[in-house]
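assembly run, all chains below
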Amino acid sequence: MHHEISGLSNDCPTVKNILLLDSEGKRVAVRYYSDDWPTNAAKLAYEKSVFTKTQKTNARAEAEIIILENRIVVYRFVQDLHFFVTGEDDENELMLATVLQGFFDGVTLVLRNNVDLREALENLDLILLCFDEIVDRGIVLETDGSIIAGKVASHSIDDNSPLSEQTISQALAAAREHLTRSLLR
Amino acid sequence: MAQPLVKKDDDRDEEADYSPFLGIEKGAVLQEARVFHDPQLDARRCSQVITKLLYLLNQGETLTKIEATEVFFAVTKLFQSKDIGLRRMVYLMIKELSPSADEVIIVTSSLMKDMNSRTDLFRANAIRVLCRITDGTLLAQIERYLKQAIVDKNPVVASAALVSGIHLLQTNPEIVKRWSNEVQEAVQSRAALVQFHALALLHQIRQNDRLAVNKLVASLTKGTVRSPLAQCLLIRYISQVIKESSFNSQAGERPFYDYLEGCLRHKAEVVIFEAARAITELSNVTTRELTPAITVLQLFLSSSKPVLRFAALRTLNKVAMTHPMAVTNCNIDMESLISDQNRSIATLAITTLLKTGNESSVDRLMKQITNFMSDIADEFKIVVVEAIRSLCLKFPLKYRSLMNFLSNILREEGGFEYKKAIVDSIVILIRDIPDAKESGLLHLCEFIEDCEFTYLSTQILHFLGNEGPKTSDPSKYIRYIYNRVILENATVRASAVSTLAKFGAMVDSLKPRIFVLLRRCVFDNDDEVRDRATLYLNTLGDGSVAETEKDVKEFLFGSLDIPLTNMETSLKNYIQDPTEEPFDINSVPKEVKSQSLAEKKAPGKKPAASSTPAAAPTSAADAYERLLSSIPEFASFGKLFKSSIPVELTEAETEYSVNVVKHIYDSHVVFQYNCTNTIPEQLLENVTVIVDASDAEEFSEVGTKPLRSLPYDTPGQTFVAFEKPEGVPAVGKFSNVLRFTVKEVDPTTGEAEDDGVEDEYQLEDFEVVAADYILKVGVSNFKNAWESLGPDGERIDEYGLGPRESLAEAVSTVINLLGMQPCEGTEVVPSNSRSHTCLLSGIYIGNVKVLVRLSFGIDGAKEVAMKLAVRSENENVSEAIHEIVASG
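ok done. output:
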């Protein structure tokens, strides 16, 4: 796995990594956009640390936030999946939360609300395409979950039930409702 | 949707650990990749294989060069398929493989075809892939399409081109800068994200042109900004414009302030926050300017979203450091956040309150914190301890309750770092608040009765030895110290013996009792403890070789003016080469070694606590000394006095990267040029640096040592030596040209061609400055050292430094100019202070100890004046220091 480094000027909002881990802290899919972690071992160590430090928190209804090794991490959990976005210490926290929300919504949509580890692994190609549409080498490409999912899913033309732009908004509504219901339960 | 990669089991619920990638293995997947060569491509199958490969790479698996090339060529076959899903995976795979230049050529035509496809997604993705893997030459070919793409009707395509432009600007600025007109047009786009990306690119293209940036910012503040992200960018640019404008807060309205304030009413929270933060960070922000920003941040504090509460609180915490009064309105909101579920928020709330609270609220706050401490992690506790320390220094009258708090938490469970933070805080309070001394020392004594950390015990014993004898009743500490001799490990016992000796030396009435105790220590089973006891018994006058009282005190309390790490290395070397000669302490280098890069990078969040000097980790000086002494031409130059830190002579990311280290000898200097060749297709031979010293009159070149061969990415050194007048701090400017023979290297075989071409490469100039002749050598007790040098070699003068950005900037400029070691943390200027004293120490060439006391003052117009007092063993050296400042 190689890096996607870019020497960007400081004022452009940037993301250092996006992580999708399972409930044991194992990688489902990760993307690094910074040379802060030059080796796979360094990356694994970071993932372990992020996972352990956030494990006990309740990040299910709302995105949570923590400062770790002088970086900001925003995160959210659903079922057995843990979503993380890491940024610079002085990055606008809400900007990172917006990226996390886009990532989260996008994945929810391409997995058609069945957001769990098994579904994520079975559709790993779509998850990887989501990563690709959210951030390009550290620069935020898109933060709207339905647009991200639309770009990812528009390729499944030969599928029986394509996820067109129209059904996206329905799916997003369904996703929100689903989430609310699962919270009320 | 994509199909599962392996057939689903019928009863998936029973098999919880099911994963489509279970047992997947690289070799097998590479075998499977043969389907890419099938004449009848099965798009779905191929997608699955790519997904498996991407999965493996994402898990940290790597492909060998050969494997990667094979996969790459196989993947390029897949462009034959029209399947959209497969094409997307092909794009991902190509990006992941980051092909080499000659491989890129293979896919270029396919990608260029896709760049002109009617499918928007193809266009967008092909642009991103091609720009990612391309080099400069290819870029010129596709430039026309990229310019078109920037103004493409489809926002995805436009964004793809703009974001690629942002990346390409780093490597091919001259090409990207030609796209200004198109980018300018894209800034007006109705698509939100396109505007964001266009703005980012346009600003980067123009960032060195202040006028153009001002114009861009001004026009955007009048127009419409559609995306919150673009709005955030604009706010950042405005902050820079304000910072660079010569605005004077006394003179009236700050430019663009109204606009920032307007952003506080934006509908997107991310924008409101960005604007509020920007206002709080304005330099010399007034209370009136701050108020609206604080008001919105206060609203965020009661948000249901943790991220929002955290962001607002973190900003308020920073404001509280400089404008505590402005934040007091939020105190009630912050107090309710002490019980926030998110511990980061709770800790921020506490520490902010500690900064904004007034003297009367201290006791109430401390009560709340006591409940809170038990259920937070050590790292947060440390933050709280540091906040309490500064609170105590702010309200010295409250020391009793704060010191009690510290001593209580010192007794509770906790890790080393946490305990150390507490001990450091108590030590600082004892030093700064005289009234707190006796109770503080007793708290420390009680702590060492039951302390599991040897390091902390010895630190406290050392401190006790210096402070205890000066208290009203020194005898009450003896029991605690002697208990250590009975109960602890050898390291602590040895420290306790030294501490006892200090009491004996300072307090005559205790001397006889100390002798009794020390005599018992002579029977200790540890060598070091016994040796120390015997030594102290003799020096204190119990034995035959009684010393004078002054010598005894010097011996016990005087500091070693040699960095301990240097001492350690020298002793290790001494032991390695057995010799009859005794170890000579004067042979130990006195320079404080510069911190390693890794340490410098870590932002200094915590102020260096107490008197413990920062460890000097690297031994660059030793490495230099070894390297230089191995070169016969330089062997006759004598002892190396100082090596500078590397000075870069090339910009980052150029073909050849060169920096220089200046090695100073008594009558010579040697320039060590560290060269790196960053072009894989080149081998450099016979590398030298041609130095023009016409602006350095006192120097004459005496020799060079060329570098025979400089292959790609393997750093090498070439040297040039100069003679200069002996012991004189000669200065001058040197211009440099890198000269070499370049040979082409075949990248596939790695072999160089036989014939090379002579070539030159212009490097930047550098100077030998006065600071190169001063070693950074710290003293642990500046006051003692200052007094011991006496007023004879003292020279005092005053200087006007003109208008400066800030007091801190003036202080650091002078420190850098002199190249001396700041002592006792005096290099840190508290914000908003109007005067500051800075203490420096160093060794001047010729091994002369120099101490400097700098007193700075700043007035309303930011004019800085400085009084410079220099003491040294040689008054000429004191003069020379003044000379440096006068001519700097």
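The mean pLDDT of chain B is 85.

Chain B is about 50% helix and 15% strand.

not gonna interpret more than that til we talk
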